[in-house]
Amino acid sequence: MSQEMDLTKRFDTYIASEQKIEAKDWMPDAYRKTLIRQISQHAHSEIIGMLPEGNWITRAPSLKRKAILLAKVQDEAGHGLYLYSAAETLGVNREELLDALHEGKAKYSSIFNYPTLSWADMGAIGWLVDGAAIMNQVPLCKCSYGPYARAMVRVCKEESFHQRQGFSIMMNLCNGTPEQKEMAQDSLNRWWWPSLMMFGPSDSESKHSDQSMKWKIKRFSNDELRQRFVDMTVPQAELLGLTLPDPDLKWNEHTGHYDFGSIDWSELQRVIAGDGPCNRERLETRVKAHTEGEWVREAAAAYAEKCAKRNSDQPHAA
Ligand SMILES: [Fe+2]
Ligand SMILES: [Fe+2]
Predict the structure, then answer these.
(1) Of 148, 240, 231, the residue nearest 188 (C-alpha)
(2) What's the mean pLDDT in 6-35?
(3) From ligand 1's centre to the CA of 159, what distance in Å?
(4) Which ligand is closest to the CA of 163, given by its number?
(5) Nearest C-alpha neighbor of 98 from the set 40, 36, 46, 50
(6) Is residue 6 scored above 80 in pLDDT?
(7) What is the CA(141)–ligand 1 centre distance, in A?
(8) In this structure, are residues 268 and 201 in contact, taking their beta carbons and an 8 Å threshold?
């Protein structure tokens, strides 16, 4: 009993003094569970996030754009790998996490359940979706759990490249023909509201937020981050010469922020519940990729075993 109190006290002191909690440190069960849920959902979002864009690699308009998009989608696979590894430090294994995803039991970001209908969607996704991801993820570099915080440093550097490549696609289209500009506007119209939903429910409705703030997993509330994103994006849309699809959007001199219209939360609930435009398709594609990739996992495991055996057979230097 008293030993447990000591451990709790030490954990609380670490959190209060901004020291990282490491994999081998004692931590409350609820803290561990929260992190497993958050990190695994994040990992799933990275690999499911490859699908809407992977869809356009073969149809990129130039070799340069193809190479950039390919690199971007590969980065997302890498993010998934760092994050599954970070989750594994908490005592779960990757197969269990992936099984939960494939059986439809685990969640991932609902933004990836929307279809990519035109090349401009590669621009809008990079600009808005990766832009919103950066807003959410930069504070995670200071998250109290060491392995998650460290994984996020590199992820955020790569996300900022993703955001800029998306903006550059939008810029090209907006400086192109009237049809290209229209394509960019149509894409913005479709991605704007789902991007705002990426920050999660409003603070009054968010059930995990308070405790996560106390544990310093989360540093800013959903609504604060959403507001920052709107404030950052409005001038960028102006620079592109595009109109954000919100008649209520306007600068508020008193608050020093942009006011914006209300979000259709019933849409988010519907997509989270599995009834978005592409939920079934995404999951089917993921399961198919996993099944067809079995030989790769087997080959990698056999090779790792061979290397380990070779190392253990070698006589150790004195
Ligand atoms: Fe990513
Ligand atoms: Fe990204």
Answers:
(1) 240
(2) 94
(3) 6
(4) 2
(5) 40
(6) yes
(7) 14
(8) yes
- For ligand 2, the distance from its centroid to the CA atom of residue 71, given in whole angstroms, is 10
Q: How far is the CA of 108 from the centre of ligand 1 (A)?
A: 13
d(CA 26, CA 28): 7
pTM over 0.85: yes
Q: How far is the CA of 15 from the centre of ligand 2 (A)?
A: 29
Place of tokens 């090209």: 172
Q: Which two tokens stand for residue 60?
A: 């990129």
- Provide the token pair at 237: 């849309």
Ligand 2 center from residue 314 Cα (angstroms): 42
- Tell me, in angstroms, the distance from the centre of ligand 2 to residue 134's CA: 8
Predicted local distance difference test score (pLDDT) of residue 1: 53
Per-residue pLDDT, averaged over 261-284, amounts to 92
Residues 6+ away with beta carbon under 8 Å from 128 = 166, 188, 191, 192, 195, 233
Token code pair at residue 2 = 């008293």
Q: How far is the CA of 74 from the centre of ligand 1 (A)?
A: 9
Q: How far is the CA of 254 from the centre of ligand 1 (A)?
A: 36
Residue-wise pLDDT for 114-172, tens only, equals 999 999 999 999 999 999 999 999 999 999 999 999 999 999 999 999 999 999 999 99
* pLDDT at residue 204 tops 90: no
Pairwise CA distance, residues 145 & 300, whole Å: 29
- The whole-number pLDDT of residue 124 equals 98
Q: Which helix (H) or strand (E) covers residue 258, if one does?
A: strand 257-259
Token reading at 83: 């994050």
